[in-house]
Amino acid sequence: MKPAPFAYVRPGSLDDVLAELAGDDAKVLAGGQSLVPVLAMRLGRPATLVDITAARGLDRLDVDGGALHVGAAVRQRAVEHADQARAVPLLGMALPFVGHRELRSRGTVCGSLAHADPAAELPAVACCLDAELEVAGPRGRRTVAADEFFAGAMTTTVAPDEVLVAARFPVARAGEGHGFAEIARRHGDFALAGVVTRVRRGPDGAVLAARLTAFGVSDRPVTRDVTDLVRTTEGAEGLLREATAGLAAEMVDTAGDAHGSPGYRRRLLAVLAARELARAHRTAADAAPRREPATREPNRNPARPPERARARVPAQERVAVTFRVNGSEATVRVPPRMHLADALREHVGLTGTHLGCEHGVCGMCTVLVDGSAARACLLFAVQCEGTEIVTVEGLGRPEEQHPLQQAFSAHHALQCGFCTPGMLMSSYDLLAGPGAVTREDLPEQMSGVLCRCTGYRGILAAVADVAAAHPGGVPAPLNCEPRVLMGRSGGSGQGHTEQSGAGARESTRGVDSSLDGGADLTVPAGSPSATVEVTSALGAPVDAVWAVLDDVERMVACLPGAALTEALGGDRYRGTAGVALGPVKLSFAGLAQIVERDADGHRLRMIGQGSDAGGSATQADIRLRTEPAPGGGSVLRADADLYLSGRIAQFGRALAGDVSRRLFEQFATAVDAAAAGREAPARRGPSPLRLAIGALLDAVRRRVSTVRRR
Q: Which is it for strands 163-170 and 155-156: parallel, antiparallel or unpaired?
């Protein structure tokens, strides 16, 4: 799981950041905890990463003018523990649910907002609080309300040459109460459904305003004013439960996935909404006004030292990076795309840092960077200039083990031992941090490293023993002192790929060529990754709509990002399709075949297949039908079975069905316009559909137009 080559630059000013973004295919890098997995799975291949962490002024964190100002370089864990953030209670309630500690150490608040994942917590908090987001670009600065900032799944109103520079969260007022809750399969996972609530009451207890925002149930946060609902129920949870059932049915707008159907999410949302509105109503009665700090001077991000600017490093060149690891200074020469874990293992010889998933899920590569736990596979070595790194080798000596290592041994807290380094470094970070750690907290606090074998209970027992023995904080690492560090195999590193290597092999990867030989396309056996059913009312009559669907070239013209490259005969076609969804940019080459055509019944069935250079493959079975509408015009119905494999299958979640459905809705609008003899409405460009429809994309470039609209 290695990113494709990219150039790297860390400008020292915002003007220089904007100058870099004005180039071709540049992407902003702040925390990188969402972006790097996209790159690792080859779902995105930007030419340049523009690291904004050294740009002056973006690390500001302070309360001023009735709002908490959070700069684009401020990390989530810094806000989580900052005194200033207590003025915005909802942030304190939501941040512990954002991934895991190891991710929040590097992830930024503004980065989460800009990534705009539909299941993310911070976008929902921003919408519920009416936060203001400041965007800078070549045309100057502008302020965008949170409700207007999110345009869809992983899509915002920030242009490619702009950058989100700050978020301003209003300080809680007197008489204001809040609620936050989410349901996920395990702590730190994407939410199946979640709610954020805010209720403000007057001195007499009357409800002045109430607001509810749901996330994980649509392609963006969904906000409703529920003042009348809370007022009439007087904040009673039982009465609210009945009232929120109908509200949940209205707010849930998702096709569902393997983890939860739309009906299940509606039930979750109704229960959570009632409970958290009641909580906000109850706490609003006792809420005191929040006072701003006496000083108005901006504070630097307390969780990180100042970054230093770095000149552009071309994608194929190596750059010298110097850091201290386990007390010794080390200089490695690496390409920009090599992550820290590979640099430590291959160039420095510290193989105790294990590699598992390489996209930030398993936690095996956990190390300490500047005193906080971080995923070494989500951090590029080039970002680590001047940092202080501690790996498991620095924790204890052979003759003097660290108390954590002693406890792990005493409790037999391992089986195969593969997770042990990650568990040790994560538990050290937990016990060295502020606040007491209870035995009951450990399953949640240690969930950032995946291991649930027969040694897991021993791991929790070992950490609990050390927490009890060292209530004032765990002892510092014992083996951090200068020594000679030696890399392996000349230190070339796994992150470097020659032209004849994996990248060259990927470029030759193509789709099944069976159509060239005349064989029919087929779909896989078994359950599809996602299913889509969409019905669209069109103004054009049935015959005119059918004329568009029956003409492959006209149909493809209604599909953004698709191109028909060759008609192979026998209703078989070859084409390409490109789709962009936030940092995800994919280009598919594929084949499609119409396997059924009923002109009298106005129905088509097509099968498509496609693949991209990053190893993702898609197939789709698409059925289209148009029929007269009772009041005139026509109805276009489409349903599709989507089969995803490779890296895209790991990334899609419920986005596959949701994005496909929304794309089909756009496609239907374009078909309606074409059928009426009008020019198809302009689109925003290739859309997220590709995630949900890889295969469809290929077939879609001709029939997939419909599928995409689904």
A: unpaired
- Give the whole-angstrom CA distance, residue 499 versus residue 502: 8
User: For the purposes of burial, counting CB atoms within 10 Å of the CB of 139, is it exposed (0-12), middle (13-18) or buried (19 or more)?
Assistant: exposed
Please give the share of the chain, as a percent, with pLDDT higher than 90: 60
Beta strand 319-325 with 388-390: parallel, antiparallel or unpaired? parallel
**CA gap 622, 614 in Å, rounded:** 24
CA end-to-end span of the chain: 31
The whole-number average pLDDT for the span 469-481 is 92
pLDDT in tens, 482-513: 876 655 544 333 333 333 333 333 333 344 44
What is the structure's pLDDT at 510? 41
Of the candidates 111, 117, 193, 107, the one whose C-alpha atom is nearest the C-alpha of residue 155 is: 117
Q: Locate the DSSP E strands across 548-682.
A: 562-567, 572-581, 584-598, 603-611, 617-628, 634-645
Cα distance between residue 565 and residue 576, in whole Å:
7
Distance separating alpha carbons of residues 656 and 710, to the nearest angstrom: 10
Number of Cβ atoms within 10 Å of the Cβ of 482 = 10
Q: How far apart, in whole angstroms, are the C-alpha atoms of residue 211 and residue 199?
A: 6
Question: What is the C-alpha separation between 658 and 218, in angstroms, rounded?
Answer: 8
Cα separation, 135 vs 132, in Å, equals 10
Specify the 3-state DSSP secondary structure of 98: coil
**How far is 326 from 318, CA to CA, in rounded Å?**
24
What SS3 class is residue 294? coil
Q: Is the separation of the CB atoms in 131 and 169 below 8 Å? A: yes
Please state the pTM of the whole predicted model: 0.79
Whole-number Cα distances in Å, 165 to 22, 488, 548: 16, 41, 45
* Dihedral, 428, 185, 259, 657 alpha carbons, nearest 10: -50
Write out the two tokens for 539.
């103004």
Rounded CA gap, 515 and 462, in Å?
60
Structure tokens at 85: 């953030």
Q: Which of 651, 669, 655, 674 lies closest to 706 in space, CA to CA?
A: 669
DSSP state of 356: S
